[in-house]
Amino acid sequence: VHPNVSQGCQGGCATCSDYNGCLSCKPRLFFVLERIGMKQIGVCLSSCPSGYYGTRYPDINKCAKCKADCDTCFTRNFCTKCKNGFYLYSGKCLEKCPDGLEANNHTMECTSIVHCEASEWSPWSPCTKKGKTCGFKRGNEVRVREIVQHPSARGNPCPTTSESRKCIVQRKRCQKEGKGKKNREEKRKKSNKDESKETRQESKGRAARRQNREQRENNNKTQPKKRKAPNKEQNLAPTDTAH
């Protein structure tokens, strides 16, 4: 062992030196060189830092640097996140997206262009004029549809979602709201009045029947009982027969 190599290292180092830091790492740790000014220091980490990717070898695990335009990468040729000003597409960082794709400034990726999609038209509404369905001959009817897929930045814009056309109907007279309300109120009062009249008649009938029943009971109580007439044959006294 070189005289400058120490065996009692800390921070995950298997071997180290006072000048260069870690020279080798403990199992499963990654060795990476960090620059401090003009000097490079070896450190041992459980995972590689941003801008590096890890490779494992039988004797040592190393962190290698990604490409200059990659912020993070899986291998040197496959980026997972690009630096500012670049868009990620199939593991590569591009300044401009290929044809048929558009740049997503939120995710900084090249994505497929999405066009607007609308549902089928609804049936035509009833013919109306100023919100009414009576009192006119010519009116308008409308139909609508919904947007089921909104477009992306470069996608085709959405079409109109409503249509209107003229319509002709058979004219019919509108019932006046005040008159109709008055008729309904009169019908309701008449119905209540009839119900009250029937109720009063039923109450009077019950009262009359009850009064007649009480009168008969009172008559039966006050009328004297008739005495039973004596039998004429029994009252005849025996008489002597004149000879």
Automatic annotation (TrEMBL):
Biased composition (Polar residues): 232-243
Matches recorded under SUPFAM superfamilies: Growth factor receptor domain (SSF57184), TSP-1 type 1 repeat (SSF82895)
GO biological process, one term: Wnt signaling pathway
Bias-annotated ranges (Basic and acidic residues): 175-219
Protein's cellular compartments: Secreted
Domain Spondin-like TSP1: 116-170
Listed GO CC annotations: extracellular region
Signal peptide: none
Domain R-spondin Fu-CRD span(s) in chain numbering: 11-110
Family assignment from sequence similarity: Belongs to the R-spondin family.
Subunit structure: Interacts with the extracellular domain of FZD8 and LRP6. It however does not form a ternary complex with FZD8 and LRP6. Interacts with WNT1. Binds heparin. Interacts with LGR4, LGR5 and LGR6.
Protein purpose: Activator of the canonical Wnt signaling pathway by acting as a ligand for LGR4-6 receptors, which acts as a key regulator of angiogenesis. Upon binding to LGR4-6 (LGR4, LGR5 or LGR6), LGR4-6 associate with phosphorylated LRP6 and frizzled receptors that are activated by extracellular Wnt receptors, triggering the canonical Wnt signaling pathway to increase expression of target genes. Also regulates the canonical Wnt/beta-catenin-dependent pathway and non-canonical Wnt signaling by acting as an inhibitor of ZNRF3, an important regulator of the Wnt signaling pathway.
Protein name: R-spondin-3
